[in-house]
Amino acid sequence: MASQEHLSSIDDARTSVKLDTFSTDVENDAGSDDLMNSSVQSFLWNRITVTVKDRETKQPKLLLDSIDGVVKAGEMVALMGPSGCGKTTLLNVLARRDAAAGAKVEGVTLVNGDNPSTSAFRNLSSFVEQDDALIGSLTIKETMHFAARFSHKNSLTKTERIRRINSLIESFGLRKQANQIVGTPIRKGISGGQKRRLSVISQLVTVPKILFLDEPTSGLDSSASFEVMSFIKEAAKKNHLIVIASIHQPSTTTFQLFDKLILLSGGKSSYFGPVTGVQDYFGTIGYNMPIYTNPAEFILELMNVDFSSNREESESRLSDIQRKWIESPEARTLATEIEAASKASLPLPNTKQSKRHFFTDVVTLVHRSFIKSYRDVVAYGIRIAMYLGLAIMMGTVWLRLDYDQASIQPVTNAIFFGGAFMSFMAVAYVPSYLEDRASFIKDRHNGLYGAPAFMVSNFIIGLPYLFFIAILFSSVAYWLSNFNPTGDAFMKWVMWLFLDLLSAESLVVLMSSIFPNFVVALALTAFANGLWMSVNGFMVPPTILNVFYKYVFSYIDYQSYVFKGMMVNQFAEVTYTCGSKCECMFRTPLVAECKIAGQGVLDQYGYHTGLNGTWVGILLGIVLGYRLLGLAILMVKKN
Ligand SMILES: Nc1ncnc2c1ncn2[C@@H]1O[C@H](COP(=O)(O)OP(=O)(O)OP(=O)(O)O)[C@@H](O)[C@H]1O
């Protein structure tokens, strides 16, 4: 009874999806041919075998063992099997992505019987990752516009682009939410199922002929899963697309949406064929499915070894299923179908590698980041508020310092604290950068733009915000604390602060590119800043800093140049009085006048004037170095 209720609720969901699908207005539906696949007839894979070096035994380990299959245009295929059976590995091989770390791949994948180059294959296919990797502060429409701008570069007119986007949004039932944001940790956005549909259409806008989906229903309840798969099925059927999706335990109705099933267990084929034939097939090999049973659940239960109460029995059942598949008439039919499909004669579609448009990509990325930067407070808003708070705090703690020698040490402390703490706080940029990076990795996999365009745009978008923060902070703290009160000194202070922030943000980008994990990137950036703080010249003057830290770290420490620059800016041209008793802390030529020339303070640190240009040059070099290293990491690291 309970299961019947479940089925009827799924049926309701199915009806509502159908209604949504067919509420598409006629005008928008006119664009539905945009996705039509008239060039890819079949996609087959033959004897796919993947071997890796086992992590523990260091011996060769077979992850996939001679896997075959063939799919025709318009078919939607489910890739199923128990956890660890090799689904992700097979999906990666089929999509021509890295199968697994250090894997050796054998076998062929053919499109229309032909073997296209990897770049040609990627031009006619798209991969939808399990992790949505969407920019949370963009609306559905904006996400689609940017995806379309990246994929079609300048080949579509704006009107045509808008028409195609509206048509896709409409046909995936997202019209009502089109202007809603995806959702950030602070602002709630669209639902999980809607996000998944958006991930799919943001790939469909690139007009793929073959669509790969990695667990498109993971994390969704059964009705949302059904909804997502129904929309995909509809699009595949209408446009003759090939869809291959790995999937875990689909409900009965979701399972029945698929045309074919690839069943794996322990890296071996256990079934390949129509979903409608699964029950009969298992019946004929001696495993009858009881009535009112979810077929997907039944099959997975049969193959389950890891969680079985009787492991020996399960293993022997699994071997039996694998052996019977090899001997089955269905496997022979598949071999014949593969033979026929490998001789198909339809020429491959024109898969000329689309030229990279570096400047167009940079402009589009800057535009996208700009929307994110003002809409997502995590990107810059929180930092702006934080720096303003810090400026007020500093300005009031170090309030109106006078030009008596008693102020020399507090002023020096303020210079150190301001510069070091500002760079420390740049760690607040880590989450935002990681979101952008995840989006970049996904887009690059699908050939939309490259690492140089991403890095350049990331640098450009930071400039106005960091400059604004430098001005804001200085306008408050500089005058409250009564630093060197000339316009020229103020502008130089702003410049040092700006370069400090620019370097700190570039360090965040480098660390988060090497370790794209929130906690690790945060910890390492904080550690690096702690190191730069310790050797920047304030804690231990460079004149007595031990040689290891001096020669290994202090010359490449951006904070040391900022500290030097600010110290020279403050002390080079001012004088301090020595108090009523005329006991000067520093003996300078002005001692007879009961004063200290600021240069005396600088001499203690070994700082010389007239080197501003050199220090600015070194700082820019450090920023460039961080960025180039970050770029190299992004180019080498594929995930
Ligand atoms: N270098 C390696 N050494 C040993 N085993 C490995 C190695 N690389 C991958 N594997 C194993 O290969 C198997 C296949 O992994 P894959 O991710 O393709 O499985 P899956 O079916 O997608 O799993 P899941 O459903 O849990 O995501 C896993 O059991 C994995 O642990």
UniProtKB/TrEMBL annotation:
Subcellular location(s): the record lists:
Membrane
Tell me yes or no: is rRNA processing among this UniProt entry's keywords: no
Q: Which InterPro entries match?
A: AAA+_ATPase, ABC2_TM, ABC_transporter-like_ATP-bd, ABC_transporter-like_CS, ABCG_dom, P-loop_NTPase, Plant_ABCG
Q: Which GO terms describe its cellular component?
A: membrane
Q: Give TM regions.
A: 377-399, 411-434, 455-481, 493-511, 615-636
Boundaries of every ABC transporter domain copy:
46-291
* Topological category with respect to the lipid bilayer: Multi-pass membrane protein
Q: Which GO terms describe its molecular function?
A: ABC-type transporter activity; ATP binding; ATP hydrolysis activity
In this entry, which stretches build a coiled coil? none
Keywords annotated in UniProt: ATP-binding, Hydrolase, Membrane, Nucleotide-binding, Transmembrane, Transmembrane helix, Transport
PROSITE patterns, per this entry? ABC_TRANSPORTER_1 (PS00211), ABC_TRANSPORTER_2 (PS50893)
| Keyword ATP-binding annotated | yes
Q: Which Pfam families match?
A: ABC2_membrane, ABC2_membrane_7, ABC_tran
Name the family the entry cites.
Belongs to the ABC transporter superfamily. ABCG family. Eye pigment precursor importer (TC 3.A.1.204) subfamily.
Mind telling me which PANTHER family this protein's record contains? ABC TRANSPORTER G FAMILY MEMBER 11
Q: What is this protein's name?
A: P-loop containing nucleoside triphosphate hydrolase protein
Organism (species): Amylocarpus encephaloides
Q: What lineage is on file?
A: Eukaryota, Fungi, Dikarya, Ascomycota, Pezizomycotina
